[in-house]
């Protein structure tokens, strides 16, 4: 797949609300983006070849049931939002459920049932963060399986409380497993991290539910508290951004409520898909190691440098900016705390072709 043909369609945005409840949020999103959701379901090889077959095995059902019960109990509103997405888009709820729990389910699928090529696409997202006298920036490549190309959108939702959030969203999933911000001055971007299988707790809280919860945080401290209380199944890396106080935190998490918080300062901080400060047994990921090594050698003195870093394609096998065949950089989000903007760039960020510029609170 050539990069040019995959970058032609501008990201669609849907703004709505105030909403009465979570089901209505999901229903309206599902209804509006039914075409994208249905297309993703039919084109996502991980869903078709791994998740759906696994869900049909009788010995898998207790595991999926436990995962469902735990998350429905902890986050009943977001569970209803998932139901709304399924009903609004007219697709089976099981498919929506599996998409949203893919990171929590995939480690438990027997390796003999996996497609080896699909195993290689777990590494996704690169972030570069800095807060110094000259700039305060969080810049983030949103990388994903090529099946996601053309299957993402933006939503701006106003809740009944008056709070609003804007979120980059994968078709069929809760907003947002990628990045977003709200009217309380809280923003975030996300990076996956690959713990060893022994570090994963089966049937615990799903990462999509945690990040959905962050969209309603009323402060960076509240966002941290929501992460601390999540009891997640699989680890994650959160870049929490206080758009009013010029603060950025990198928060690495693992199962059993293990968390490490790193305050971003003058030294630019690059994060791919590996733990950097939380002591956790993790899978050795050649893709992340390659990006981490390459980023360490590139200049980071200006915002333009950061964009050039995220657009770097120097490494033939594992470049920072990805154009397939398995992984693809869907877009780049640039949060500038001095300009108080979030800019979304589709295409290589070195070219600075802006698709959206949002004012931050």
UniProtKB/TrEMBL annotation:
InterPro entries: C45_proenzyme-like, Peptidase_C45, Peptidase_C45_hydrolase
Entry superkingdom: Eukaryota
Pfam families recorded: AAT
Domain spans labelled Peptidase C45 hydrolase: 135-350
Protein name listed in UniProt: Peptidase C45 hydrolase domain-containing protein
Taxonomic lineage from the root: Eukaryota, Viridiplantae, Streptophyta, Embryophyta, Tracheophyta
